């Protein structure tokens, strides 16, 4: 029975009682999001079977931090009260009462004594826990894997609209302008990947123009460095990017933001959440955005609509189900950024000049997910997820048709239209348990997953009127009939995986993690079932971490990876090539300073990828391939993030990439990988005035720099090194019970002309052109 009642009309004391006689003495799992303190205490009383007493006036107007993890109920109360100026007392019968803290009380988090948990503060630049690497709720300082989190506070301060913008806050991650700016093009530890994850669900762009990740419902971004296929299946060995989305809250919260910026950018976002029932059994959240934007490039503009409703059903104290959906409709324009390279140099033209024509593309995507979990007791939990993602595209590309010019400096151009469909079905089930054996504490994970992908497209092509590269006059006429461009695709693939993992706490601060995955993949063309290709592999992961003090950890790991299938390669024997594989050795150190407000990670990794497709040396025709290529990436990384002094946040990153082709039959041996710089780093810092006449004002800025990169060939070309600077100013003030924030960001303050990468091909050369100086303002109302 759950009992609410007010004692005393003036005192306003509130009692939450749940079976008073059954005070809990063992640790329990809690998952309470950020919300008003009163409602957070109510939820804790329910979940913790705890008698909790507090005065309404004492907690009114205060917000709680998030509470995620296993605690004794009274310890959980202390976590929720952190930074509120309140304390608690526990009676002999187990009841807990909230009271003012002894001595001067303040709401500023910098005055909190004892161990500080940044996860509890929505303004923090650090995170202390992540479930992406291990699929368990493990502190980052106890995980022998390099994990970096870009939290909501950073996304807000930098006004992140595109995911790749956020990844500059993580070392070892290089980004580019993929598919004419219409995909998230990411290089993790030197390896280019077209795969990203949403709450662990794989989304593969295939380097196509499917649109970048919508950010309206993103809570944080977690980057797992190094091979992650043990937990998530086939992928590139450099790592994974996992988007964590917003969940419903038990307390009503509403936010409306209007952004406006350079090149006719207008973006409106809305966020609404709260309970649908008086007992918080049903919770909802709804995020939406509408964006209309031009570009510094000619003939390029986009319009995007995004809706993301979520409904959570708290079936019981230990059982929960969540139904979620995402829908997006994008009207996009492809721009491959052609910049001819003639007689050993790029032609002179402006950054805005577009030698192609308008190329409108449309994307409609609907994602529906159902997740549920049940805790059998304090130690064992079963969770399942099911996701369906249906994506329809109608892509238009316009690109150069030849590396050579026609007479009169005319560039031949080709028009492509590619209607297609990509449907993905996914389910996973995980059983997590905590057991003790001979004094050792184990966190066990046993799980399995299944992916099904169906992909269809029918490409058409035609010749487009040529254009003078020195005196361009746009002409969008097709000069040939529209015909089938290449063989239409109708492919399917099934991915089956089973995995197990054990995390063991030993004496003297030693943590050991071991796990493996069995993966089976089959791929086929639906028009010719006999062309079935199947691969399977067992990949292990081992990690050891030593935590001699609670603020430092030393770790090392060895991981194997299961990579691409090499399905498209043609061999002399007609047999399919083995899939790519990889191994990583990594060692590093993790630190927490200032009671956890500042964290740092130093790491050195060495990744070798085998079975890379290369030319068959026994085939004089050059038509056939073998899986004899090898690529290596190694180097140090540094990540520092958090609060140095009250109100002063900083992010600093540095990575040195030594990426080389170590085996190859195409003459590439010894060359660096495409688009990967040798060195890159970033520095971002903000200061939030804590009191005085400037209270509510936040200022900040940063610098990002990187070396030049090659196009992966032996032509000797390399892009120029560059650095860009950004600025931030924001002011927050109260409007009644609401909060209003006005913010202004400047990106590329010095208007630096830069190119992240280039691929040389004569007149058909393309360059990824950096955005000139741009401004982004916003007004955000929260209530």
Please, could you describe this protein's structure?
The longest helix is centred in the N-terminal third of the chain and has 12 residues, at 37-48. This protein has three domains: 2-107, 3-Layer(bab) Sandwich (Phage tail protein beta-alpha-beta fold), CATH 3.55.50.30; 130-243, Ferric Hydroxamate Uptake Protein, Chain A, domain 1 (Beta Complex); 244-782, Maltoporin, Chain A (Beta Barrel). The chain is built from six helices and 48 strands. It has 783 residues and is mostly beta strands. 42% of the residues are buried. It is 5% helix and 56% strand.
List the helices and strands and how they pair.
Blueprint: E1 2-7, E2 13-18, E3 28-32, E4 35-36, H1 37-48, E5 52-55, H2 56-59, E6 63-64, E7 67-71, H3 73-81, E8 86-90, E9 96-100, E10 129-130, E11 138-139, E12 147-150, H4 152-157, H5 163-166, E13 173-178, E14 183-188, E15 191-193, E16 195-198, E17 201-204, E18 218-225, H6 229-232, E19 239-245, E20 253-261, E21 265-275, E22 282-293, E23 302-316, E24 319-333, E25 341-342, E26 345-346, E27 360-375, E28 380-400, E29 410-437, E30 440-457, E31 460-468, E32 483-484, E33 489-506, E34 510-525, E35 528-549, E36 552-562, E37 581-593, E38 598-615, E39 625-645, E40 648-656, E41 658-663, E42 679-688, E43 697-706, E44 722-735, E45 738-747, E46 755-759, E47 766-769, E48 774-782
Parallel strand pairs: 5-9, 16-19
Antiparallel strand pairs: 1-2, 2-5, 3-7, 4-6, 8-9, 10-11, 12-18, 13-14, 14-15, 16-17, 18-19, 20-21, 20-48, 21-22, 22-23, 23-24, 24-27, 25-26, 27-28, 28-29, 29-30, 29-31, 30-33, 31-32, 33-34, 34-35, 35-36, 36-37, 37-38, 38-39, 39-40, 39-41, 40-42, 42-43, 43-44, 44-45, 45-48, 46-47
């Amino acid at each position: 029975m759950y009992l609410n009642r007010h004692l005393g009309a003036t005192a306003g004391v509130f009692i939450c009682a749940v079976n008073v006689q059954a005070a809990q003495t063992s640790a329990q799992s809690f998952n309470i999001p950020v919300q008003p303190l009163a409602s957070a205490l109510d939820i804790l009383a329910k979940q913790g079977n705890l008698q909790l007493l507090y005065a309404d006036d004492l907690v009114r107007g205060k917000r709680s931090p998030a509470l995620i993890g296993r605690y004794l109920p009274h310890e959980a109360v202390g976590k929720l009260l952190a930074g509120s100026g309140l304390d608690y007392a526990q009676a002999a019968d187990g009841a807990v009462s909230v009271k003012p803290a002894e001595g001067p009380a303040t709401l500023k988090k910098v005055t909190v004594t004892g161990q500080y948990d940044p996860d509890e503060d929505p303004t923090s630049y650090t995170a202390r826990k992540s479930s992406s690497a291990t699929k368990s709720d493990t502190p980052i300082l106890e995980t022998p894997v390099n994990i970096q989190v870009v939290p909501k506070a950073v996304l807000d301060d930098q006004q992140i609209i595109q995911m790749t913008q956020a990844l500059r806050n993580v070392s070892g991650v290089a980004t580019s302008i993929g598919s004419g700016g219409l995909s998230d093009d990411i290089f993790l530890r030197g390896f280019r990947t077209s795969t990203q994850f949403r709450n662990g669900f794989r989304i593969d762009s295939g380097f196509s123009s499917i649109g970048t990740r919508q950010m309206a419902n993103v809570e944080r971004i977690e980057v797992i460095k190094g091979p992650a296929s043990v937990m998530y299946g086939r992928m590139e060995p450099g790592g994974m990017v996992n988007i964590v989305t917003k969940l419903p809250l038990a307390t009503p919260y509403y936010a409306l933001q209007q952004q406006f910026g350079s090149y006719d950018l207008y973006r409106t976002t809305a966020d609404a959440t709260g309970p649908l029932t008086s007992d918080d059994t049903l919770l909802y959240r709804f995020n939406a955005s509408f964006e209309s934007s031009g570009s510094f490039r000619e003939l390029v503009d986009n319009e995007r609509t995004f809706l993301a409703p979520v409904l959570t059903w708290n079936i019981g104290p230990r059982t929960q189900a969540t139904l979620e959906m995402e829908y997006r409709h994008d009207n996009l324009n492809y721009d491959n950024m052609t910049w001819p390279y003639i007689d050993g140099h790029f032609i002179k033209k402006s950054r805005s000049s577009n030698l192609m024509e308008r190329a409108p593309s449309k994307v409609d995507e609907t994602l529906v997910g159902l997740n549920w979990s049940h805790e059998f007791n304090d130690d064992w939990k079963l969770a399942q997820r099911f996701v369906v993602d249906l994506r329809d595209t109608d892509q238009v590309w316009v690109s150069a048709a030849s590396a050579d010019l026609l007479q009169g400096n005319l560039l031949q151009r080709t028009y492509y239209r590619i209607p297609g469909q990509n449907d993905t079905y996914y389910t996973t089930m995980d059983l997590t348990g905590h057991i003790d054996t001979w004094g050792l504490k184990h966190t066990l994970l046993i799980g399995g997953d299944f992916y099904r992908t169906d992909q269809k497209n029918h490409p058409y092509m035609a010749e487009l009127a040529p254009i003078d590269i020195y005196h361009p006059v746009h002409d969008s006429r097709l000069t040939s009939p529209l015909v089938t461009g290449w063989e239409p695709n109708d492919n399917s693939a099934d991915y089956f995986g089973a995995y197990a993992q054990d995390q063991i706490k030993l004496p003297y601060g030693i943590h050991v993690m071991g796990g493996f995955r069995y993966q089976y993949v089959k791929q086929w063309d639906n028009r010719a079932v006999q062309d079935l290709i199947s691969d399977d592999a067992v990949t292990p992961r081992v990690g050891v971490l030593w935590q001699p003090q609670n603020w430092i950890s030393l770790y090392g790991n060895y991981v194997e990876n299961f990579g691409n299938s090499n399905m498209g390669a043609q061999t002399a024997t007609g047999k399919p090539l083995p899939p790519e594989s990889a191994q990583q050795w990594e060692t590093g150190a993790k630190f927490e300073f200032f009671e956890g407000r500042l964290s740092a990670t130093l790491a050195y990794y060495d990744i070798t990828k085998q079975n890379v497709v290369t030319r068959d040396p026994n085939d004089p025709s050059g038509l056939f391939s073998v899986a004899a290529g090898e690529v290596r990436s190694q180097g140090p990384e540094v990540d520092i993030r958090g609060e140095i002094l009250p109100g002063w946040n900083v992010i600093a990153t540095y990575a040195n990439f030594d990426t080389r082709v170590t085996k190859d039959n195409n003459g590439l041996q010894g060359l660096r990988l495409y688009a990967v710089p040798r060195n890159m780093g970033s520095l971002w810092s903000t200061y939030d005035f804590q009191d005085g006449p400037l209270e509510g004002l936040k200022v900040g800025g940063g610098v990002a720099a990187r070396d030049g990169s090659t196009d992966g060939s032996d032509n000797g070309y390399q892009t120029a090194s560059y650095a860009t600077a950004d600025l931030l100013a924001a002011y927050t003030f109260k409007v009644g019970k609401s909060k209003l924030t006005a913010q202004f960001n400047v990106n590329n303050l010095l208007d630096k002309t830069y190119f992240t990468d280039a691929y040389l091909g004569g007149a058909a050369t393309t360059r990824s052109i950096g955005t000139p100086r741009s401004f982004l303002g916003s007004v955000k109302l929260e209530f």
